[in-house]
Model the fold of this input.
Amino acid sequence: MNIKELLPIGTVVLLNDAEKRLMIFGIKQTDNNTDKEYDYIGVLYPEGNLGEDGQFLFNHSDIAQVFYEGYRDEEREEFIEALTNFYENEA
Done:
């Protein structure tokens, strides 16, 4: 997935085959148990963070619907640019 297409934190989504919405609170997260990287980590909406058992790793392709898109500003754009450079130099 193109880094610049990542949704901002605060975005509320529904995943494929899910009944409950999630709010994205992090991007480009790694599962500590498998070292697999995911596009996002989210928590139940509207409940929020209920601990590790209530945090879900998922990819952009898992999203069925976007209900609300989070905040974007210049600081986020600078972060996305730095993240893009990091992944380009890693390859």
User: Anything to note?
Assistant: The beta strands are 12-15, 22-30, 37-44, 55-58, 63-68. The chain has a mean pLDDT of 95. Residues 4 and 54 are 27 Å apart (CA to CA). DSSP finds one helix and five strands in the chain.
